[in-house]
Amino acid sequence: MRSLSILGATGSIGASTLDLVRRNRDMFRVVSLTGHSNVVLLAQLAREFSAEIAVVGDEALLPDLRAALAGSGIEAAGGAPALIDAARRPADLTVAAIVGCAGLAPTMAAIEQGRTVALANKEALVSAGGVMTRAVARHGTTLLPVDSEHNAIFQCLAGNDVAHVRWVTLTASGGPFRDWSTDRLHLATPAEAVRHPNWSMGAKISVDSATMMNKGLEFIEAWHLFPVGVERLRIIVHPQSIVHSMVEYRDGTTLAQLGPSDMRVPIASALAWPARMATPCEPLDLAAIGTLTFRAPDEVRFPATRLAREAVMAGGAAAAVMNAANEIAVAAFMSGQIAFTRIVQCCEDVLACGVPMPPQCLDDVIAVDREARIRARETMALAI
Ligand code: NAD
Ligand code: MG
Question: Which residue range(s) make up the domain with 239?
């Protein structure tokens, strides 16, 4: 039996992870579960899985969490420092599934345990970059990618030397607007943006999929996880989301990982790694699917992947700046303050203000993130 913590247990990845744990109760003992504000769900999950501790990110809700856990013997805590403490509790495996840079400090705390971290929180890696990968190396941590593309690449690289890699190809569904004209994109609403054709996900990543910034963030994530060099990383649009990514070797062999569009597959791969565990997902029926199609991304309508590639080339803290601007712009779009097409424009505008030096430590990353958020708000205010 392995001990398991889930940072972001009340979200979409948290739910998929706990669904697998529920079906395999003999495999895991739950240590920490965290959520941001859904105290009712958090307390219910903590009771169901007999967690040691439940932590609510919004400290004002701690009394509610305490009340909801009364008599259970489960500890309750609240606030950002408590999230970090929860991530520090010894656990064989931590699933990092908070959305956004808010997950950075807890994810780093989990990494510093030197055990295994299953990473879904891509924004944390995009922002912290070398600070995070150096911490992984220093603490001897095993970092298992949960993002479906990176999990696919991780599996396709197993047993091979990256020196033989010709291409790492990230597949992209293209999101709900992949066939929309630029004129139509200007008018896209939040409700349309979160309606992803293939995947059921949290709101922020759904909007990122619609702008293709999700693929931009994933490009940077891949650049950090798989040291093949930026010139060997590429993106291809694959509307069916069946091939989750590919690795081509110099002998002409291409290995791909295929599966249903269900995050329980990559999560199970990380939870059981290096073994395998069963999932309730339907077996892949390629005859029923019939056709798999691929096409080049259109970076005129969807400039986010170009921006991400440029951020990698620019180095410094460019990726952290881009990520922070995107988080602010996505929130502004969701609350009806800016048009859909201004999200990526805002990222580009903030990057054009200049790129700070590469962060050397977690505090540097947090400072860059904070500054870029202020810039993003200023940029949008100027444009409205
Ligand atoms: P979600 O919005 O459904 O859940 C996010 C979780 O983070 C929730 O538990 C929420 O309470 C918590 N949270 C949000 N803000 C917080 C804060 N300020 N402090 C502490 N906790 C906070 O998001 P999701 O779709 O589960 O995505 C989680 C992460 O996984 C994201 O980084 C996303 O990019 C990545 N990811 C998700 C999917 C997917 O299919 N959902 C696939 C690949 C990668
Ligand atoms: Mg992905």
Answer: 150-383
Q: How much distance in Å is there from the Cα of 12 to the middle of ligand 2?
A: 13
As given in the structure block, the two tokens for residue 384 are: 């409205």
Q: Say how far apart CA 360 and CA 376 lie, in whole Å.
A: 23
| Ligand 1 binding pocket includes 320 (Cβ within 6 Å) | no
Q: Whose CA is nearest to atom 31 of ligand 1?
A: 99
Whether residue 333 sits in one domain with residue 211: yes
Report the alpha-carbon distance of residue 341 to residue 235 in Å, rounded.
21
Q: What mean pLDDT do residues 72-85 have? A: 98
Q: How far apart are CA 30 and CA 6, in angstroms?
A: 8
Whether residue 285 lies inside any domain: the answer is yes
Query: What is the rounded average pLDDT for all residues in the chain?
Result: 97
Instruction: Determine, yes or no, domain membership for 130.
Output: no
- What are the residues whose beta carbon lies below 5 Å from ligand 2 (ion)? 147-149
pLDDT in tens, 234-255: 999 999 999 999 999 999 999 9
Residue in 26, 23, 29 with CA at minimum distance from that of residue 2: 29
Average pLDDT of 102-106? 98
Return the pLDDT at 383.
Answer: 67
**Does residue 266 have its Cβ closer than 6 Å to ligand 1?**
no
- Whether the CB of 334 sits within 6 Å of ligand 1: no
